[in-house]
Amino acid sequence: MDRSAEFRKWKAQCLSKADLSRKGSVDEDVVELVQFLNMRDQFFTTSSCAGRILLLDRAVRSTHGLEVPLSHKGKLMVTEEYIDFLLNVANQKMEENKKRIERFYNCLQHALERETMTNLHPKIKEKNNSSYIHKKKRNPEKTRAQCITKESDEELENDDDDDLGINVTIFPEDY
Description:
Elements: H1 3-16, H2 31-39, E1 54-55, E2 58-59, E3 66-68, E4 71-72, E5 75-76, H3 80-120, H4 122-128, E6 168-170
Parallel strand pairs: 3-6
Antiparallel strand pairs: 1-2, 4-5
GO biological process, one term: tRNA processing
Keywords: Methyltransferase, S-adenosyl-L-methionine, Transferase, tRNA processing
InterPro entries: tRNA_yW-synthesising, tRNA_yW-synthesising-like_sf
């Protein structure tokens, strides 16, 4: 069996299995993205969490999270004010995550549209596959590629730029 047929078989098997996540369904914020990915022949995802996307067998994890114990042996170890502060920070990070998902989805659509156009127009493909490649010097101020969403042209903050320098996950006591 060729690799393409093996992949199609694997994809069909994986997508036909029941969703075993705790929630039992795809998060509302990523339903459209998951459907878009799974309609493509070359890849698929079974991820259901808006905070994490697993494409095939590789996960990209960021420092864009919170992990902190709040209690120990039934005793609350922090103030209510601190809990409110953590909730505010966590909500800000969740909003940022939604923006990142939207930007990823828009960039993915754009990239796949360009790939389709290149495949449909051989002259573009020839130009892109030229034996002469001119490399530009990397601009240190612009080291990562950007794809701007339709709704907003503001750049999302970098993972490494946490003002607070904290990484916290809130676990319930009976976790």
